[in-house]
Write a structure and sequence with these properties.
Elements: H1 4-22, H2 26-41, E1 43-44, H3 54-60, E2 71-72, E3 75-76, H4 82-99, E4 103-105, H5 111-135, H6 145-155, E5 158-163, H7 179-183, E6 184-189, H8 200-210, E7 214-217, H9 228-237, E8 241-245, H10 250-254, E9 270-274, E10 285-289, H11 291-297, H12 300-303, H13 310-323, H14 326-348, E11 352-353, E12 362-366, H15 374-383, E13 386-387, E14 389-391, H16 399-402, E15 405-409, H17 411-416, H18 420-435, E16 437-441, E17 447-454, H19 458-471
Parallel strand pairs: 1-13, 5-6, 5-7, 7-8, 8-9
Antiparallel strand pairs: 2-3, 4-10, 9-10, 11-12, 12-15, 14-15, 16-17
Helix pairs in contact: 1-2, 3-13, 4-13, 5-6, 5-11, 8-9, 14-18, 18-19
Bound molecules: D-serine.
Domain Serine hydroxymethyltransferase-like: 24-125, 158-430
Catalytic activity: (6R)-5,10-methylene-5,6,7,8-tetrahydrofolate + glycine + H2O = (6S)-5,6,7,8-tetrahydrofolate + L-serine
Binding site for (6S)-5,6,7,8-tetrahydrofolate: 165, 169-171
Length: 482
């Protein structure tokens, strides 16, 4: 009963918003309305997605968006920023308190932006500042043309050691198709072929030989814990800066599921994250760092970022305030319990999982065990209403496009309220689809890596069972757009 007034308020807020939009461009109002229906109807297992609260969503839809605010709190390049200052200061305060960080920068628009801010902060601290000091000047504009050319060469001649893509690393960790690979000489560390776990001894040997400026830890498809204390020890040994990209698992750090050696914040000099994955905030990024990097990090805008998005910083503040509530700790624990239940359910039904299971929010199914490529598995699952994404597995014979893996994650379904028993049912649905999918053929009759055939009736039957499951946990129950 006590929820009724809030529910009415939420419905009214979103309905009025859509009416206003419909008056200008009905196709956009329709697309927004259709998106909530699509999300309500699908079994969302994409490990990097979640559902932000109505308060977070509403914090983004307002006139804070109209303000330019380059600079940082109290030091802007534009007048009239007092409300943006409040928003940014409150968001940063929540971030510092939540993660126990010395400094928080909440402006990055995305994870890649947060990583760029971090890279340039480290380059400024470790390459640019010493060059200025050697030249006896305070800023780059005071350097001679010759010294400036030498500094630019030095900035472009630094090394980064990051996790290999097929072991679960991220494209922004020094890989050539991304700007990070064009900025740094990159070398990768991987996982042990037997256990599938990060091989710290090999990492240490590689770091000693390669002498990187930055060692970057963090992943988008590694289902186990990372020992950040050990990573820092290795970084210190070779005079590297330890940077951790916790985009995927920030919610587990915030919810105190990852603590001690597995919490990156006390160990890394600089930590980046997105805010919309397991942290359940708005789409955006954030940087946490120690005092030594704070000034450089605050130069993110205009160094590599366009003007801050004050409305999104407002939503970050709301999401971070939510994550400081005791309920968020319970949520984070349930995410991990659910991932384990899903992994166990899949394994019991004969699926092969990379590393044999999970310690975090995601699991990686090696679908070659079903005779499929990742692409075939992804599309067959989607046909049955199960939304996942294909992903390379270590030493993947099918490469990054077709892949041999399917990544599944539990942050979104946990937000929706599903529990461990229901994860077993989800495992059953996934296994049903994969084991009843066969490989299609190319025009010349050879086995295809892309096409597939799902047995008649399976998609409908799975979709019905999944709809029953989802009906027990309505998404955004407080929002009625009818
Ligand atoms: N796109 C995110 C993911 O799915 O892991 C990372 O960039």
């Amino acid at each position: 009963m006590s929820a009724e007034p809030t529910r009415t308020t939420e419905s009214t807020a979103f309905r009025s918003g859509l009416e206003a939009i419909r008056g200008v461009e009905p196709r956009i109002a329709d697309a927004i309305g259709a998106e909530i229906e699509d999300q309500r109807a699908s079994l969302k297992l994409i490990a990097s997605e979640n559902y932000a609260s109505p308060a977070v969503l509403l914090a983004m839809g307002n006139w804070l968006s109209d303000k330019y605010a380059e600079g940082t709190v109290g030091r802007r390049f534009y007048a009239g920023c007092r409300n943006v200052d409040t928003v940014e200061a409150v968001a940063a305060e929540h971030a510092r308190e939540l993660f126990g960080a010395r400094h928080a920068y909440v402006q990055p628009h995305s994870g890649i932006d947060a990583n760029l801010v971090a890279f340039w902060a480290v380059l400024a601290q470790r390459v640019e500042s010493p060059a200025l000091e050697r030249a006896g000047v305070r800023q780059v504009n005071e350097l001679t043309e010759e010294d400036w050319a030498a500094l630019r060469r030095d900035l472009g001649d630094q090394r980064m050691l990051g996790m290999s893509l097929d072991a679960g690393g991220h494209l922004t960790h020094g890989f050539r198709p991304n700007i990070s690979g064009k900025m740094f000489h990159q070398r990768s560390y991987g996982t042990d072929p037997e256990s599938g776990l990060i091989d710290y001894a090999a990492l240490r040997a590689s770091a000693r030989e390669f002498r990187p400026l930055i060692i970057i830890a963090g992943y988008s498809a590694y289902p186990r814990l990372v020992n950040f204390r050990l990573m820092r020890e290795i970084a210190d040994e070779v005079d590297a800066t330890l940077m951790v990209d916790m985009a995927h698992f920030a919610g587990l750090v915030a919810g105190k599921v990852l603590t001690g050696d597995f919490d990156p914040v006390p160990h890394a000099q600089i930590v980046t994250t997105t805010t919309h994955k397991s942290l359940r905030g708005p789409r955006g990024g954030m940087v946490l760092c120690d005092d030594s990097l704070a000034d450089q990090v605050d130069r993110g805008c205009p160094m590599v970022l366009g003007g801050p998005l004050p409305h999104v910083m407002a939503a970050k503040a709301v999401a971070l305030a939510e994550a400081r509530q005791p309920e968020f700790r319970a949520y984070a624990q349930r995410v991990v319990d659910n991932a384990r239940a899903l992994a166990d359910g899949l394994t019991r039904r004969g699926a092969r999982l990379v590393t044999g299971g999970t310690d975090n929010h995601l699991a990686l199914i090696d679908v070659s065990g079903y005779g499929l490529t990742g692409r075939q598995a992804e599309e067959a699952l989607l046909e049955a209403g199960i939304v996942t994404n294909r992903n390379a597995i270590p030493r993947d014979p099918n490469g990054a496009w077709y892949t041999s893996g399917i990544r599944v994650g539990t942050p979104a379904l946990t937000t929706r309220g599903l529990g461990t028993a229901e994860m077993d049912e989800v495992a059953e649905l996934i296994d049903t689809v994969l084991s009843r999918t066969s490989v299609g053929t190319t025009r010349s009759g050879k086995p295809s890596k892309a096409t597939y055939a799902l047995e008649d009736g399976v998609a409908k039957q799975v979709a019905e069972r999944s709809a029953d499951l989802l009906a027990k946990h309505p998404l955004y129950p407080g929002i009625d757009l009818s």
